[in-house]
Specification:
Elements: H1 3-6, H2 11-17, E1 19-21, E2 24-28, H3 29-36, H4 40-49, E3 59-61, H5 64-74, E4 88-91, H6 92-101, H7 105-160
Antiparallel strand pairs: 1-2, 2-4, 3-4
Helix pairs in contact: 2-7, 3-4, 6-7
Length: 177
């Protein structure tokens, strides 16, 4: 398949729709419906008709607080565009399951792009974890070297200070010869 055929939607657009909620990378039903070219209602109807395909680790409904937080943080809905129901959040596995529920060529092609976006994010996160680990190792080495360097400076300072002259006795002394 040619690259142009699979790029219905810019990768950055898809990556921007992936959110972190409850410690999981998810996509909201409204965003998925827009990407698939269907209404949110139709997407959710298809999911409800096949609910056995969507266990709790594939899909969950946002709480009122999570929904309000999302609306506040990224402006999901503009004033006057309120949903009657709380949105559904789909994990990577849930999004993969959607391609079987929505039977269209576009759904399959969009799913491929979404899966690539999830994989790319996972790679970025693992690279960042690896970098953080290497950075902490480097910091420990530097701390060890700092202690050693401080000891070297202390030894050099001791060598640089002139030896103390023996103090003479105060008073008269008589030489006995």
């Amino acid at each position: 398949m040619k690259k142009a055929e699979t790029s219905l939607i810019p990768q950055e657009t898809i990556e921007g729709k992936i959110l972190l909620i409850r410690g999981k990378k998810v996509m909201i039903d409204r965003d998925l419906a827009m990407l698939y070219g269907v209404t949110t209602g139709n997407l959710n109807k298809a999911v409800r008709r096949n609910i056995e395909r969507f266990p709790g680790d594939f899909m969950f409904q946002l709480s009122k607080d999570e929904y309000d937080s999302l609306r506040f943080q990224i402006g999901i809905l503009k004033k006057g565009q309120h949903s009657k129901y709380l949105p559904q959040a789909f994990t990577q596995e849930g999004v993969a399951m959607l391609s079987g529920v929505l039977n269209s060529k576009r759904a399959v092609q969009v799913n491929i792009q979404i899966m690539r976006a999830f994989v790319k994010l996972r790679e970025i996160l693992s690279t960042n974890k690896e970098l953080a680990h290497k950075l902490s190792q480097l910091e420990r080495k530097i701390e060890k070297h700092d202690v050693e360097i401080q000891a070297i400076f202390k030894a050099i300072r001791q060598l640089m200070t002139p030896p103390e002259k023996p103090k003479g006795k105060i008073g008269f002394s008589i030489d006995k010869k």
